[in-house]
């Protein structure tokens, strides 16, 4: 096993990785910005190094500073968490070229999946369903108009190099396409340094379902169930649950098989997520529960996901430990041929944001009391007295609940949300209290428009 691990991230994910590292007897090394010096992950690491000022480009994305910290502390491996440098293929190559172990997929897999058009084409070749769309970037507006006419409106206009719900727009007709194309292309050039644009069929009513995969050290790719991620605002997730209430056993089998094929197509190693769009049936069933007709590959996230805890609770595994074992060339702690889910888990992303408009609301945390109880887990990045700054993502904590059934998990989530005492920054706990009483969410028959309908 790896003996020393540098965590190239911050907040709750750094704290969560450090927790597993220390349980395994691995020396945990944190890097932090000047703004984060007082956060719990810094104090809980065995060693910590300041890598720059608050600006992420000068700290958490500062490759030279992070590699210097690894060298000065004698780190053997680097875990990038999610965000920042986690899906940067050049960083992964540089880490390995420096003689360090990269806790993540190979750089070639990151590169292959980092471009949405290339990823779509690879998946189609591997027999993974993809939505109707362009196989090459729409080079100009005329090409985009021609592609949309062939695909059929409405269409989604996407930045090929985008991710995390950024760089997307919907066009219901040609006039809207002309506006969205210029807007997305400009955004993509500014944010990603790549203005390539993909045109894809847009489905007005759709669910967002993803599959957790793990590429093992022996070359096999296994799937650890699916997660429902349809509660979103501005195409960014707020709530995730596993198993999905929309996925039947037959559909699950197809989902997992497609996800494994996706991983195998790029020789995937370590943890990753295959994200899909699930197009539901019309609401014409008679009390049989939500159904579905077809699903399409959306993208592959070549890293650990924010929502990985729901999979951990349902499958009884520590995904960070499994990542470390794969990186070290070791077998998993579980039997890949005997994976079976138990119960239900739900994750709520507790953000420093207005619960109505979801606009950021940083500030000093004056009260912070985490809920406890059976089936309740909190992965947090802050404690009372810390300051949530405007420099980073607004995520403060993840409230994860589990139960024998979905109904029990929802009931425990209600109790936990009510018991979470948080004052100072604006927060979205009131939104979760509302969601957990929402008839559409409770039924399980919801889609990505649920938050808009609630507002």
UniProtKB/TrEMBL annotation:
Give its E.C. classification number.
6.3.4.14
Transmembrane domains' residue ranges: none
Domain ATP-grasp intervals: 120-328
Q: Which UniProt keywords apply?
A: ATP-binding, Biotin, Ligase, Nucleotide-binding
Domain Biotin carboxylation per the UniProt entry, residue ranges: 1-455
- Which PROSITE patterns does the UniProt record give? ATP_GRASP, BC, CPSASE_1, CPSASE_2
Whether DNA repair counts among this entry's keywords is: no
Domain of life assignment? Bacteria
Identify one Pfam family in the record. CPSase_L_D2
GO molecular function terms noted in the UniProt entry = ATP binding; biotin carboxylase activity; metal ion binding
**Enzyme's top EC category:** ligase
Q: Which InterPro entries match?
A: ATP-grasp, BC-like_N, Biotin_carboxylase_complex, Biotin_carboxylation_dom, Biotin_COase_C, CPAse_ATP-bd, PreATP-grasp_dom_sf, Rudment_hybrid_motif
Question: What is the protein name given in its UniProt record?
Answer: biotin carboxylase
Q: What is the lineage of its organism?
A: Bacteria, Bacillati, Actinomycetota, Actinomycetes, Micromonosporales
């Amino acid at each position: 096993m790896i003996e020393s691990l540098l965590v190239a991230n911050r907040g709750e994910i750094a704290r969560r990785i450090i927790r597993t590292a220390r349980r395994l007897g691995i020396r945990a090394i944190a890097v932090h910005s000047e703004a984060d010096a007082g956060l719990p992950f810094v104090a809980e690491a065995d060693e910590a190094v300041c890598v720059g000022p608050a600006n992420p480009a000068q700290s958490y994305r500062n490759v030279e500073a992070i590699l210097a910290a690894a060298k000065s502390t004698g780190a053997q491996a680097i875990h990038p968490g999610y965000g920042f440098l986690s899906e940067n293929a050049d960083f992964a190559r540089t880490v390995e070229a420096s003689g360090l172990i990269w806790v993540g997929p190979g750089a070639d897999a990151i590169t292959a999946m980092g471009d949405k058009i290339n990823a779509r084409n690879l998946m189609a070749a591997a027999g993974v369903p993809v939505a109707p769309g362009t196989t090459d970037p729409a080079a100009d507006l005329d090409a985009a108009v021609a592609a949309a006419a062939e695909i059929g409106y409405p269409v989604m206009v996407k930045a090929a190099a985008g991710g995390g719900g950024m760089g997307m727009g919907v066009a219901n007709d040609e006039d809207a396409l002309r506006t969205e194309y210029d807007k997305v292309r400009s955004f993509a050039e500014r944010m990603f340094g790549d203005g390539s644009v993909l045109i894809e069929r847009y489905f007005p009513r759709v669910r967002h379902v993803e599959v957790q995969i793990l590429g093992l050290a022996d070359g096999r790719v296994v799937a650890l169930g699916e997660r429902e991620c349809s509660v979103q605002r501005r195409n960014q997730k707020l709530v995730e649950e596993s198993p999905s209430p929309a996925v039947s056993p037959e559909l699950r089998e197809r989902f997992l098989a497609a996800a494994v094929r996706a991983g195998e197509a790029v020789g995937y190693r370590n943890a990753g997520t295959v994200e899909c769009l699930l197009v539901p049936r019309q609401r014409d069933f008679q009390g049989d529960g939500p159904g579905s007709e077809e699903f399409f590959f959306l993208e592959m996230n070549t890293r650990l996901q924010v929502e990985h805890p729901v999979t951990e609770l349902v499958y009884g595994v520590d995904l960070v430990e499994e990542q470390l074992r794969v990186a070290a060339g070791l077998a998993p702690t579980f039997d890949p041929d005997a994976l079976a889910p138990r119960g239900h888990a739900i994750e709520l992303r507790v953000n420093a944001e207005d619960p109505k408009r979801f606009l950021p609301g940083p500030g000093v945390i004056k009260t912070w009391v985490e809920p406890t109880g059976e089936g309740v887990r909190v992965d947090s990045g802050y404690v009372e007295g810390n300051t949530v700054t405007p420099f980073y993502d607004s995520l403060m904590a993840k409230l994860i609940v589990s139960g024998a059934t979905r109904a029990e998990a929802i009931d425990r989530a209600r109790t936990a949300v009510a018991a979470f005492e948080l004052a100072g920054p604006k927060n979205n706990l009131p939104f979760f209290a509302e969601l957990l009483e929402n008839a559409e969410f409770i039924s399980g028959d919801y889609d990505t428009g649920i938050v808009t309908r609630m507002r």
